[in-house]
Design goal:
The structure is a single chain. 85% of the residues lie in helices and 0% in strands.
């Protein structure tokens, strides 16, 4: 199949406009999917922390936090990933955990804004 007749029939400008439109729409869809994945993981992690505190650190709540922590690590930016690792290495209730949690929430907000 020869493409030259199509370019001639539709005009080079139309073909280029179609390609540019396709590029921007696919780029926008990728950004939206990335945002949605991060938002779901971050909100899930924050909600699992609340459930863990309400259940006083049961085995089920530990697994729930672990699940959301892993999902967050998979989609996080580099800065958030480092803070997630640091949060995981600290002990609940310590001053270091509280400070890391504050910094982590701030980094998550910045991460979602930057997409």
């Amino acid at each position: 199949m020869d493409i030259l007749p199509f370019i001639t029939a539709f005009g080079l400008g139309s073909v280029l406009a179609g390609i540019v439109q396709w590029f921007f729409s696919s780029h926008s869809a990728i950004k939206k999917r990335k945002y949605d994945e991060r938002k779901e993981a971050y909100v899930g992690l924050l909600e699992s922390w609340v459930r863990q505190q309400n259940e006083e650190y049961s085995e089920t709540s530990e697994l729930d936090v672990g699940h959301w922590l892993l999902r967050s690590q998979l989609v996080a930016s580099g800065k958030v990933f480092v803070l997630l690792q640091k949060w995981q290495d600290t002990h609940p209730g310590t001053e270091e955990r509280i400070d890391t949690t504050k910094r982590l929430k701030s980094a998550m907000r910045d991460d979602l804004r930057s997409i």
